[in-house]
Design goal:
Elements (H helix, E strand, L loop, with lengths): L2 H39 L8 H36 L2 H8 L1
């Protein structure tokens, strides 16, 4: 009975991490498609390509930050769950 929460936590953590990273990837893909379509116009509106490219660079930086934060949160949760199984694992990780 007590085993179910220990199995559900890592699964929910993995799903959370996957969804957060896929949402950022989808947003970047939409903006890249918009920038590509703007580039293919090859008319006087091609100078508008700068706007989606600037947004793309900013979002890429934000996605990198989100990925770093997600990695940090994932590792903290992982260590928290592992300490619940074996309290000595935390001290083993600190020593090595």
């Amino acid at each position: 009975m007590n085993l179910l929460p220990y199995i559900a936590r890592p699964i929910s953590l993995g799903v959370r991490l996957f969804i957060n990273l896929m949402a950022g990837y989808s947003l970047l893909k939409v903006i890249v498609a918009f920038a590509w379509n703007t580039l293919l116009l090859e008319s006087t509106t091609s100078f508008l390509l700068i706007i989606p490219m600037v947004i793309l660079v900013i979002l890429f930086g934000l996605e990198l930050g989100v990925a770093l934060i997600q990695t940090y949160v994932f590792m903290i949760f992982y260590l928290n769950y592992m300490v619940q199984f074996d309290p000595l694992i935390f001290f083993t990780l600190l020593v090595s």
